[in-house]
Amino acid sequence: MKTDRPLQAVNLPDNWHPGSWRERPALQMPTYPDPEELAQVQEELRALPPLVTSWEILSLKQQLAEAQEGKRFLLQGGDCAENFAECSSEIISNRLKVLLQMSLVLVHGLKLPVVRVGRFAGQYAKPRSADTEVRDGVALPSYRGDIVNGPAFTAEARKPDPRRMIKAHARSAMTMNFVRSLIDGGFADLHHPEYWGLGWVKQSPLAGEYQKMVAGIGDAVRFMETLAGIKVHNLSRVDFYTSHEALLLPYEEAQTRQVPRQWGWFNLSTHFPWIGMRTAALDGAHTEYFRGIRNPIAVKVGPSVTPDQLLRLIDVLNPDDEPGRLGLIHRMGASQVAEKLPPLLDAVKREGRRVLWICDAMHGNTESTSNGYKTRRFDNIRSEIEQSFDIHAAAGTRLGGVHLELTGEDVTECIGGARDLTEIDLSRAYRSTVDPRLNYEQALETAMLIVRKHAQLNPPVSA
To answer: Does domain 33-188+237-457 match CATH 3.40.50.720?
Structure first.
């Protein structure tokens, strides 16, 4: 499948190099106690093999260009923040199973190829609302993710340690290696989607609907092969890409490289990096870094962003209007999306700018419960997704993907969903050290509601 607007070479950015971000205000950066040790770690990172390749990056950019044209749908999901202790085969395979099952639901319901992007193999840094955390009168640096410091509330754990970047690179490589091995070995084979099951959800209220879908797809595959008289081998594997918030710029800079037979610079730590809402300032270090790399990129867009600010940011990040280059991940919250999103859609459409609109229905719907847990209500997540589809339809634009925080583990971190989890349930299996995630059932239910909403807006044409 080819986009009507093929990828073209664009101009190299002026006055840019991988370290030019250092000349701009850099928010959400830890203060390392030993600058010389930081520089040594960066040199070590530069000598390590890359985690992804330039041709994988350009392949993803082509697919995202097709998603901009309505020919694909993006599913981007994974942990809010990975941690070193959970780099295990079970957790990685369960996370992959969830994304594969969600993509199967979307492919079946939307009748479109799905671009599968995991929010992992590098999601080790997290922005914080304050530089310090205070407990019982003791102030320590905030936990900024395992790539920076440790979560334990001790002076030693909270001290930013540049050597953690080496550990993050190693665990990202292990995760990527295992995911690639699973996919190349047939784990994602559409002939056997039943292999993707997770034991703890056999009694799920959604199990019957999903198993019926699996059986239908299996029958369709076997029917095609019977007609053709040959095995459909390209159904035995899928494309799978990685993404993370490129927050810790010393880490990203050290893995930004030029490659043979390609022009420009690539961030080879991930396929699809994004800028968070807290670091998307027009004159900021993150925007400066992102404008120079050839990867497809995305920006989180919150309710405080004005149309003028967004257009100026687009001009900096994608001045040549390159297909597949820029995704805009709106995260407004269910209570604000109807007011805040339409002016942005109208402005971008009016200027004729080519972007991929993506809905993050998680981050604008975070709240704290009476018993002290940070959570998200599934009803609000569903509402923001459904409203976003309606708002895009009314504006004449296209919602081309979703961005979700989820896990394959049996956690109880978000309220509601198929089992109607309550505040009392949160204490049973709340494991996140940062933000609450959808569990398997809630993630699968989200995929099903996307399909139902799409069908409502695009009813079948009668013969």
So the answer is: no
